[in-house]
Amino acid sequence: MKISLLCLFGLSAALHAEVSPETEKVLTETSEISSRHIRLALSEVDESGEKLVPLVSALRRMGFGNPPPVHPEMKKSEAELAQMPEKDRKIYEDHHAERLSRMAQMGQADVEYLKDLDLDKNLKLDEAEIRDSIRGQLVFLLEDKMKVDGDGDGKLNIKEYSLGVPVRGEIEEDGVDWHQRGHFEGDDLNKDGMIDESEVVSHFAADLGLKAVQVHLAASLSNLDGNEDGKIDQSEYSEFAADDETVWKHLKGDSDTVPVSEIWQRTYWLPVSEMLPLLE
Ligand SMILES: [Ca+2]
Ligand SMILES: [Ca+2]
Ligand SMILES: [Ca+2]
């Protein structure tokens, strides 16, 4: 799907779309953050600092393009599930099934994400191009989600919102089912009973920003295997981040080393708040 996002929508339309000042701020920040991290990633793997192929090759050696592991939050035990209220458990299980079915596509979507940044398809990335691409992708996703704004007030009430979410159970008095309501409540960040533009865009912006940070982190780890045994041990890792324990523990899991071929998967669900301090 991603491949055709900008083609379908048109980059020029995306760059000149009218959005609220709050949304504009999110668009600008996310495109700038993404551009900075992707360019730093490029310069980790190639002196020119602009070539896409060396970056993709380096990432592929670390598992990029393969499906991600299951999200840590999705590994709830039977006991934890039993303690959740019925409604929350249903939503959890539903999201879990959705995620599992998307896993294979998510690996491919990562590849498309990098390809989409190269707007002029010359296999090089520059700052403006990355910014424009990210902005275009966000505007496309936003406008797509807001298509169901029937009364055109720029916000989605629960009925409008539910037109874009499948029904999974009995329709209740207000015309929506538990599944639609669960998604709505999850997206209504300020709990005012409406989904506004900034709530929609912040969700997508977080995903795209996280991806750029992950690419930067993985690229930074790509050259650490000094003795070339296919693994990164703690002394090799300390050349990159001598004082870090938190991320190292996540990366190594139960063993003492990180296989180079699994770096992408092991960085997949790291919180951005843990990755950023290592990349400043
Ligand atoms: Ca280019
Ligand atoms: Ca509306
Ligand atoms: Ca809201």
Structure description:
This protein has helices spanning 5-9, 11-15, 21-45, 52-61, 78-83, 86-117, 127-145, 158-162, 178-187, 197-221, 234-238, 246-252, 263-266, 272-279, and strands at residues 155-156, 195-196, 231-232, 258-259. With 280 residues, it is mostly helical. The protein has a domain at 2-157 and 194-223. It is globular and about 65 Å long. The model has no long low-confidence stretch (mean pLDDT 91). The structure holds calcium ion (3 copies). One calcium ion (CA) is lined by residues 149, 151, 153, 155-157, 160.
Report a brief summary of the structure.
With 280 residues, this protein is an all-alpha fold. It is 59% helix and 3% strand.
Spell the H/E element sequence.
HHHHHHHEHHEHEHHEHH
Tell me the number of helical segments per DSSP (H or I, 4 or more residues long).
14
Quickly give the structural class.
Answer: mainly alpha
Q: Span from first to last CA?
A: 33 Å
Ligands bound to this protein structure: calcium ion
Overall mean pLDDT stands at 91
| Main pleated sheet | 2 strands, antiparallel
Shape label: globular
Low-confidence stretches: none
Q: Percent of residues in beta strands?
A: under 5%
Secondary structure tally: strands? 4
Q: What oligomeric assembly is this protein in?
A: single chain
Rounded to an integer in angstroms, the radius of gyration calculated over CA atoms is: 20 Å
In which range does the helix fraction lie?
55-70%
Strand order within the widest beta sheet? 1-2
